[in-house]
Amino acid sequence: MRAALALLALTALPITFAIDAPTSPPFIHPRGKGEIVLPVSGTTLSIIDFGASTDADGLTNQKAVNSAIAALSQGDSLVIPKGTFKLVGGVVASGLRNNTITIDGTLEFEYNADDWPLDPDQKNEKFMDCIHVEDSIDVAITSSTVGIINGGGKPWWDKMIAGTLPPKNSDSRPKLIHFVSTADVLIEKIEMVNSPSWNLVVDATRAEIRNIEVKTNREYQRELKTKKYYSSSSDAKDKVKEWLVDKVSGLIPAWLLEPEDLNTDGIDPSGIDFWIHDVKIYNDDDSIAVKPSKGGSVGIDGTKYDCTQNMLLENMELVGFGASIGSVPPTPDRKCIDGITMRNVSMPGTGKGIYIKSNGNDCQDGKTSQLTNLLFEDFTITDPFWYAIWIGPQQQHEPGSDLGLDCALIYPLHDSQCPTQGCSDFENITFRNVEIVNPKLSPGAILGNSSNPMRNIHFENVVVKQDSHVLGRWPWHEDKFPFEGTYESVNCGTCTCNGCSPLPAGFVEV
Question: Which interval of the chain is the signal sequence (predicted)?
Fold first, then answer.
């Protein structure tokens, strides 16, 4: 009886905190409207004046940069001049107000476990971020040309795959740039290279991110993962490898199934009122991953919000593993993403395309989550080797481990499963003018839950164009000749389509 009442409650979950997906920029940084960011009237400092040098070691330069940041008063500017400055991580800016940081040279972080400080706030002993900005309002990171921040990721990735990262042989890697508890942020004209883990994480109320590029050595990462995969002696992995390589003719690369995730996300935004535009991201994990906020969030400026909300992301080239929403796990404080637009996006040779994901968490103790009012418009997804469209649980379960509540990364291969969550609300999601060209696999999946189906999912001019007579028809295809590839589509309660090819199961043409 209690289970039946719980099921009824899930089907009637209210959608809260909902706004329309934005069509115009929610925020334009007031000091970044032109080609040159206007500094606030104040003093300009240089890291050279505090002891930084292109000949100095990483720890010396780190201390110099931190001293320069600590000397900034409200309205001051900091310049990193031309040249290459070696650093270790732990560059921290806290309590900034109306400051401009201009990077005209290269900040080159180098792996040095002895000098790189550990984060004092992390109980699991992680290294401090390369650059960490917190509790700050009106901060602009810019360049008069193009500033380069090189994370020196290769030794971090090597040790991650080998399981030898200090101090406890776990994933202790730093993020490259991390903004937390900030407002009125501007980041532009920066090239981020080979981050140890995530590249740019911005948690803020109001942010503009523009004209940046993320470059990750994708081939090196794939080589590492492939070597690790084939060196494994696990029976379960051997079976999966045999199935994939011998039966599927290598359509899914073995490196993709490696349990160790190098996790070099491109941009991970959370908060409210963002405009992200004119960016290029080349990586092997989520190119964009909009992260959720929890109910009752309060920004440093006092702004109250209950969702990551009101974000416009446009004019992007993404080659990685998804223009992603989430993951959004069910939690007692209702993790939530609402009112997000992504448009004018090119994804040539990507892994996944559009990826909207909840998470394999249980629905006990009042846990819920929300993914609502999402618009994806004017996408070209060319030669994707994984699913071009995925709406449902995050694929994260790895071969050789217990499934539990996770969705298998290799789903639907090898009798794998993909459990959905009845306490995660998917509603008001629109795909408009999405072209999928020559996908290697079937176009994708829309996986709702039987107790709480997806609602108001609308496809408009979502078209697959396939030149091959073989590819794109596996693992899901139409029942009749010529057996064209289609979607797996289940528990989509009110789903409609206008001008779609193919038409997902359960969608009504309008």
Answer: 1-18
pLDDT score of 11 more than 50: no
- Please tell me the distance from the alpha carbon of residue 181 to that of residue 202, in angstroms, as a whole number: 9
Assigned domain for 72 exists: no
**First CA to last CA across the chain, in angstroms?**
40
Q: CB–CB of 211/234 below 8 Å?
A: no
Cβ neighbors of 1 (< 8 A, separation 6 or more) are: none
Distances (CA, A) of 122 to 28, 110, 284: 34, 21, 26
Distance (Å, rounded) from C-alpha 17 to C-alpha 333? 13
Phi and psi dihedrals of 223, rounded to 5? Answer: -60, -45
Q: What is the mean pLDDT of the chain?
A: 90
Contact 93/139 with Cβ under 8 angstroms?
Answer: yes
In the chain, the amino acid numbered 459 is: F
pLDDT for the residue 5: 30
Q: By residue range, what is the domain housing residue 332?
A: 1-37+265-510
> What value does the mean pLDDT take over residues 201-211?
98
**Which residue in 221, 255, 224, 249 sits closest to 237, CA to CA?**
255
CA-based nearest residue to 279, from 227, 328, 347: 347
**135-to-76, 96, 180, 267 alpha-carbon distances in Å:** 17, 7, 7, 20
Whether residue 84 lies inside any domain: the answer is no
Give the CATH number of the domain where residue 493 resides. 2.160.20
How far is it, in rounded angstroms, from Cα 86 to Cα 69?
17
Specify if 502 maps to a domain: yes
What pTM value is reported for the model? 0.93
* Residue 204 in this model has a pLDDT that exceeds 90: yes
Provide the domain count of the chain. 1
Mean of pLDDT values over 45-50: 98
**Would 211 be classed as within a structural domain?**
no
